[in-house]
Specification:
291 residues; alpha+beta; Helicase, Ruva Protein, domain 3; Tetrahydropterin Synthase, Chain A; three-stranded antiparallel beta sheet; 13 helices; 8 strands; flat
């Protein structure tokens, strides 16, 4: 039904104890996603914040040119390669090539030329030269109007990059918002961006938690209102408390007070949602000896 590795994986994803993880898998017939939900319903896990553990290595980068900006993520197998000058130069060249284009898919992007060579061929040759798999994972080209401003912030040497667009305000305000987004990890720009199925699942989990805590059923809906608002404060940029605020004002309020309005946010964090390469060098060496 499930293995010891499954228990270990669930523990790493949720931070719950081993016996709790085993119980969760037993209750859900080994279904990993259902087990995560089960642990959250019991109040054992804060999986929503830990399920997207940072995994693969690499860099994110944003380049702005006029009313266009390109944000990209390129992955490598190790952090050592992510700091390699050849790798860094390729990421910069790719970002600059993309911002000059109007491509919308990875297939189209891979056909673009860098120094008379397609992006796809450049990656193949770079992989051969460096000796590690290089992967162009994702990108987005963002456009703005003349009355709008870009805010760009890069953190931890390119491990996290955020790009925001504000109507009105100014570059300093936009950069502060981008810095906040890098630090506080919002998933959505505002309430309207939260998919209905995501919200309904959260409400279902909250309800189960309240019932398990022994709250009266006739008070559940009333309590849920506050919990849903708290959920929005956690996942929506507009509703989060601005990190530089002294009076606990929200990001939305901060932007509004500076004559602006939030229009768009893109946040890339290296390896989010990807499985980390599991290295055991002693085992690898032993396998080579035995092989």
């Amino acid at each position: 039904m499930f293995t010891a590795q499954d228990v270990k994986s669930l523990r790493e994803k949720t931070g719950a104890g081993m016996m709790d993880c085993k119980k969760a898998l037993q209750e859900t017939n080994g279904d990993m996603e259902e087990a995560i939900t089960w642990l959250r319903e019991k109040g054992i896990s804060k999986a929503a914040k830990k399920a997207s553990r940072i995994a693969a290595e690499g860099l994110t980068k944003t380049v702005e040119k006029g009313n266009k900006a390109a944000i990209i993520e390129v992955n490598s197998e190790t952090d050592f390669v992510a700091k390699n000058e050849t790798f860094i130069s390729f990421v910069e060249a790719l970002a600059n090539t993309l911002v000059e284009s109007d491509v919308t898919t990875l297939e189209q992007a891979n056909e673009l030329k860098i120094d008379n060579e397609t992006v796809a061929d450049t990656i193949i040759n770079l992989t051969a030269k460096i000796g590690e798999k290089i992967s162009f994972r994702r990108f987005e080209i963002v456009k703005k109007t003349d009355s709008q401003v870009f805010g760009i912030y890069s953190h931890m040497g390119g491990k996290i990059t955020t790009l925001v667009v504000l109507e009105g305000a100014n570059k300093d305000v936009a950069r502060d918002v981008a810095m906040h987004a890098a630090a506080m990890r919002p998933t959505y720009l505002n309430k309207d961006e939260v998919p209905s199925d995501v919200l309904e699942k959260e409400k279902s989990i909250m309800k189960e938690q309240l019932l398990n805590e022994g709250k009266p059923e006739d008070r559940i809906e009333q309590i849920l209102v506050g919990k849903v608002n708290k959920f929005y404060e956690e996942v929506c940029l507009e509703n989060q408390i601005f990190i530089k605020a002294e009076n606990k004002e929200t990001v939305g309020k901060f932007v509004e007070q500076n004559g602006g309005k939030l229009i768009k946010m893109v946040r890339y964090e290296v390896g989010e949602g990807m499985e980390k390469r599991n290295e055991n060098f002693a085992e690898e060496v032993q396998n080579q000896i035995n092989g």
